[in-house]
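FIELD: query
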Amino acid sequence: MFKKILVPVDSTEKPPTQLAVEEAIDFAKRYAESEEFEFLIIHVYTVDSKMTVEEKREEIKEIFDMVKDVGITNYKALYREGDPSKQIVKTAVENRVDMIVMGSGKLHDRSTKGKIEKFLYGSVTEKVIHEAPCPVWIARP
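FIELD: result
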């Protein structure tokens, strides 16, 4: 049984993030009755981003509110700084999560920029899939 799930979020404007949160909530509703169940949401940011940390937190706040609004009470909002895939995996290990639910991100970005970035750096989702200590559920558009 899944007692703890981790949901990485990047931006509420990106459909894969919204879809991942919705699927995670649907999944969590099945297990949220258990007092042992825990829903972790993580947002990883970089200092060199154009937005301040406070602006990023405000942008992501609506996702945290969405979780509260559906009645999931045992959740934690986590903010980490650094490389997203490394921080997601590190958080999964430290918190002994049973499953990660995340959006597909750039795996389906067919733009030239998306293809170049994936070739040079790989996608966050792809790295998490290969390094995660638990199953990874991918919400695809």
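FIELD: remark
The domain at 4-139 is CATH 3.40.50.620 (Rossmann fold).
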